[in-house]
Amino acid sequence: MQATAVEQQLWQSREWINLLHYYPDRMAESGYLSHVDDQHFFNATNGVNNPRAEMLATLAAFYRVDVDGNDHPICRFPARLRWLSEHIAIDPATLPKVACADYAEWRGIVQAEQVTLIFPTYHLNSPSSMFGHTLLRLDRSAGENDSKWLSFAVNFGANANAAENSMLYAVRGLTGGYPGIFIVTPYYNKIREYNRIEKRDIWEYRLNLTPAEVERMVVHLWELKEVNFDYYFFDENCSFRLLELLEVARPGLELTDEFGITAIPIDTVKSIEAAGLIEDTVFRASQVTELQLLLEQLSPDEQRYFEQLVTNTSVVKAAGFIALDDSRQQKIIDAAYRYQRYQQLTKVRDDALAKRSHTLLGLLNKYPTDDTPLPIVVPVQPEKGHHSRQVAIGAGERDDQTYQTLSMKMAFHSLEDNGHGFLRGAHINMASLALRANNETDKIKLQRLDVIDIFSLTPRSRFFSPLSWRVYTGLERQMTDGVDRLTSHVTAGAGVAYKLFDDGVFYALGTGRVELNRGFSDKRLKPAVGAATGLLWHFGSMTSRVELAGEKFSNGKYRSRLLWRHNIPLARNHAVHLSVTGENHSADRFVDTTLSYRYHF
Amino acid sequence: MKMRKEILLAAALTLGSGSAMADAAGGAGCGWGNLLFDGSSGMAPHVVAITTNGFVGNNTFGITSGTNGCSADGTITYGGAAMMSGIMNEFSEDVARGHGEALDAVAVMMGVEKGDRDVFATVVHENFSTIFPHDKVTAQQVTDSLITVMKSDARLAKYAA
User: Fold this and answer.
1) Cβ distance A82 to A219 under 8 Å?
2) What is the CATH number of domain A385-600?
3) Shortest Cα–Cα distance, A371 to chain B (Å)
4) CA distance A214 to A207
5) Can you give the residue ranges of every domain in chain B?
6) ipTM
7) pTM attached to this predicted model
8) How many CA atoms lie within 13 A of A461 on its CB side?
């Protein structure tokens, strides 16, 4: 057997490379290193960087007699055994007879004929989910026992240590301080986590994997139980690992190659779509989306009853309420119940509220079943949106001087970008750089570098009071006493947003800024406080934003600016962008206009 | 027939009055003692989930069916009995309304065939106050009452036997 493996150089096979999660690494002697960071996963002591040694050791390990039952390599590596048996004549009669009780039990529980890719949408209030998240769901085929809620979700995430505090979680989670691990959990837990608690809509993409391909994935998944992987937020993340599972399922599929630097979840969805794997798409609206829709269906009078009912269930005895149609009463009670649960989402059990919720359910129960679905408007699928990276070239003028600009950003979406497939009011950019070449001085200068730039605009309404906020940090030029200086800063703000009309959102934020500026006399690091207010307006595919903002520093210097940005998409990934900024500083005053062409790729 | 076994297991787990069950329901963290409308269990898991997409504590691989701290032995099936504690809140809403995916999931878990799902929905809807008599009902009590309700209905009795 070993001779066959050696003769055919079988360890170089893509399938073996995939099963062991090897990737090309020039530093390793064999040219390969595994993403798995867990000796338990390998049979050879140098298995982590030697596919050949691992294959030979694995073949030998199947014949071990010093271990039995669940710990035997036959039970722990069923996918390797299966694949090797297909390529090398392994006589099953010669293998030791081992009873794999745990594996058999698990296979009895996790029965799947179909795989669905799950994409919970962007969630700016959660650092790990700003770009969305992906997981897989293992479904039974449509039939008697089919229930998506009972399907198992396969999620790759960090395996954190319970003893640590919250700040450490955040820091270590983003920097690769935790090992990554696969978790298999019923899908209803994921619905609760994303749809309810995090208020995220979920997209479900059924993949066209055949039952045999699904089987191959599930068998391999068992090999990954309690196995630690390297986990890095930007590349070797949830989405990257899922692509590897798909490659194991369907040999020949190559999805991971293009994700060298970053694996943004929606980009992996796009590559899965491009590989022709998506069969159909289902939209699962979040609980709060449903609640908002339900409230929109209530008249002002009905909304008043709803509001009272949330805190006082005896309102149902009021003459005015009784006079309403049964179907209207039912809607009001349903909305009040949902609203109570919404308020309770991340809090510990409140006995008084639990009692009221139970009473509302009892009241709701008195009405006949109404299973007409809510008229949910399914948004544009996120994978139809513009691509994640962007380059732009442009020309502009500041007072009498003209210039050319070149800018690039690694990711992702600005408030003014083509909103097709994106969440309105969700702005998140990383590693965004702009260079400017002045035509008079012939000098090229760094105009700005935003390391991170997040702006979350969520309109408030009568019943919902979300916070709108922004935070951005990096380098940017500021005129300081007549000199254009490159400063570094952290700027943050929080406030409110309101919908003025269907496609227009008004916002107002209080802001704070800390700036390091060589033009400041005495101490160069100075804090400032300020405010920003603006209007974001979508019309057709075009977007316009006007903002008036200003801040005053601790040394008495002030800046104010009025900006207008207007974006005209030409196609999915092409746009023309106009930016006009008028600035008024303590000692300087100017108008800056740029017209640029933007391309997403 | 595979499902039948699971129902039997569910029923056995639910109706079994052994001390093991009492221990579990006594707050060993298995979920059986969970009250209706129990909230989130502290901030740490939430923080971990939002910062790392990860989790803290018990490693789950489907074996403990989403119940923290449960013994892996016996409490597992595709939608076995332990599931009730996992979806009790959602189930209570669906029973009150008379339809929904949580209600369908419980029907599948109980082995109710597609042809009888409407009957199941109607019967539980009519028996909301029996299954959820007050706001401090536990997952185990809900499962017990559900089985009692099913037994007393001619069309559903066969699934609760």
Assistant:
1) yes
2) 2.40.160.40
3) 7
4) 10
5) 2-18+71-160
6) 0.88
7) 0.90
8) 13
